[in-house]
Amino acid sequence: MFHHAAGGYALQGTLCGSIGACGAIINLAAMDKENSHTKILTDLISWYSQCSFPTQRFDAIATYKNQVQKVAVSPLCHTSVSGWMVAANSSYHAKERKDRCAKVAAETVYQTMVMLNAYAEGKYKPLAAKLSPETESCLSCHGPKAADNAKGQMDCLSCHDDHTK
Ligand code: HEC
Ligand code: HEC
Q: Which domain of life is it from (predicted)?
């Protein structure tokens, strides 16, 4: 079902496919009247953006161990993997890049299971840190409580300059 999600969906570098696939599982397992599935997925996406990938959790079964780590910055495959490739002096078709993305997928599944297990026990609490003060500031004018003309919760300054400065 999710083979097409590789490379940020059909190699377009959009949403990291591991988030898309885990999102489907979260929807299956945690959809309720409180919109828990959406809250958990929001949290997973923010956690992903803040995570320094790849973690070392899977090194025992990985070909490449102790790989260079780089914060994903956004849930976009493009940002996550390009930032890592430049930091690690690697390239998309390199085997170590495949190892890195396999670990990203495994870590995203792991955190999804942590979240869903907590949800099943009625103990779920958000994992990710809050939005940065900069993004909060952008959303105070562009977000749903104001002009409501910019969709999203990604780190605005990763793509835009701050025109208020
Ligand atoms: C004090 C309110 C305020 C804050 C804070 C603010 N904006 Fe804006 N922004 C505006 C207004 C007003 C416009 C003009 C909108 C229009 O043209 O209708 C604008 C325009 C823009 C535009 C389109 C025009 C351009 O200048 O390119 C972008 C992109 C944008 N803002 C991004 C951001 C980002 C990113 C942040 C946070 C770093 C931010 N804004 C913070 C009020 C704000
Ligand atoms: C991954 C990159 C990226 C991120 C992150 C991002 N934006 Fe954008 N944003 C864009 C691009 C690209 C456009 C389209 C610009 C264009 O049409 O010239 C855009 C358009 C906009 C516009 C309309 C500007 C116009 O002139 O039409 C606003 C307002 C805006 N973004 C605000 C935000 C805010 C606020 C955030 C953070 C919550 C944010 N953006 C996060 C890339 C991004």
A: Bacteria
The dihedral over CA atoms of 114, 118, 121, 125, expressed in degrees to the nearest 10, equals 180
pTM value > 0.70:
yes
Residue 25 lies in domain: 3-127
What is the DSSP secondary-structure string of 67-89?
A: ---EE--SSBHHHHHHHHHHHTT
My answer on whether 123 and 137 are in the same domain is: no
Same domain, residue pair 106 and 134: no
Give the integer Cα–Cα distance in Å for 38 and 23. 9
| Position in ligand 2 atom list of the atom nearest CA 153 | 38
Domain count across the chain: 2
Torsion of CA 86, 48, 21, 17, to 10 degrees: -20
The ligand minimizing its distance to the Cα of 164 is: 1
Centre of ligand 2 to C-alpha 15, Å, is 16
Render each residue's pLDDT in the chain as its tens digit; 165 residues.
999 999 999 999 999 999 999 999 999 999 999 999 999 999 999 999 999 999 999 999 999 999 999 999 999 999 999 999 999 999 999 999 999 999 999 999 999 999 999 999 999 999 999 999 999 999 999 999 999 999 999 999 999 999 999
